[in-house]
Amino acid sequence: MKKRSTLIIILLLAADIFFLAVSFIFGYYVKYGPPWVSGVYPLFLLERYSRNLLFAVFATISVFNFFSLYSKNQNRDAVDEAASVAGAVTVSSLIFFIISLIYREIVISRRVIFAAWGLSIILIAAFRIIVIRIRRWLFLKGVGVAKVLIIGDPAQKAGLVKRITEHPEMGLRIVGQMDYIQERIDQQFYSKLRETLSFGRVDRIIFACSLADSTAVMKLIEVCEVSRAEFQFVPRVLDIIESRISSDEIVGVPLITVKEIKLYGLNALLKRTFDLAASFLAVLLFAPIFAVIAVLIKLDSKGAVFFMQKRVGENGKEFHLFKFRSMVEGADAQKSLMADRNEADGPIFKMRRDPRVTRIGGLLRRFSLDELPQIFNVLLGQMSLVGPRPPLPQEVKEYNEWHWKRLRVLAGMTGLWQVSGRSELSFEEMVKLDIYYIENWSLWLDIKILLKTIPVVLSSKGAY
Known about the structure:
Blueprint: H1 2-32, H2 35-38, H3 42-48, H4 50-66, H5 78-102, H6 110-140, E1 146-152, H7 154-166, E2 172-179, H8 187-198, E3 204-208, H9 214-227, E4 230-233, E5 245-250, E6 253-258, H10 266-300, E7 306-312, E8 318-324, H11 331-334, H12 359-366, H13 374-379, E9 383-386, H14 393-396, E10 411-414, H15 427-439, H16 443-459
Parallel strand pairs: 1-2, 1-3, 3-4, 9-10
Antiparallel strand pairs: 5-6, 7-8
Helix pairs in contact: 1-4, 1-6, 4-5, 5-6, 8-9
């Protein structure tokens, strides 16, 4: 498994070097014309500018390594990989450009750098995306998968096993499970674990237990390190805020500070500006679709085109959420009669085959078109394009104290949990993803979630 990962890294490294050389040659011809015009051919260019090219390749590969583009344990999707490549090539191009201004021995046109920058992003990102697709296809065939041992609390472990089993394209195959109940952990447990790992049947251990103490976790990590098995764990809710923790000291007293969440102040203004610009553009683009959907709803069943529902938004403030009507008129009044048919856990209500849904409503829900009017909630400042989904007031009444964290920011039309499984996720998993989003917000994270929403919506997986 590790040898195969090393071979893939070597392949990526060789491909990157090749595409960087091709991009450099392309940049030269953009400025000076093709070989039959400039009279300069690729081999001559490589010989004449070998020092510049070697420096450019070295700088770029170093930056790629900094961006973790040669990590052995990569599970990036196409959007993440393309973004990382674009960022790494941009940074390395800027470095090369600045150094070329300082050191006159490195003489190269800005037009050459710019053209090489654009083509190298396209070529390298495209190749890496193809590699990702091939690897996932091989994983589906059982080739190159990592053998995984799941250790954890029986309830948490069951959810993790279900998710891994449902997604074989991620390259994980469960070869064993061990229950971890804190009161029953003894030397026999660790002896059994060492015996399992000693046969080389396990590449990775995934630990899922919220109640385990730090000493027990460190003992597990030590056992894994000795057996050269990778150790991963499912974070607790408190682990997610680690990015906001900083250390300090006052008159010799050590202090740990939990900083303000990122979605306040200037970041909140930046996010709001992006929301306004993008939603205004969306209204212009989707206006014809709005008109068609409105006509279809009126032709399909009696009732209004739009449906307004009271939801809970930022800091517990209630607002009316806009949707295209996808159910029969008076559907809310029937909900209490169907409580025993709820298929979701926690305080939310979900049904795969809800009899209240109309024919057009089913189509709208399948592709999330019923959610489009929420663009107006975004324009009104009641919602954001990306964020936790706004719950119903009766759902909030059943929240535990830590669930309220997801109401600290504006609700969103889409979010991290929607692009990570939608209705297939449990309520607890959904809340953890929302909290992770709040703790790790960035404008790029919003853009990435919006890009990932497109294929999720088109596939209609987990939508009901």
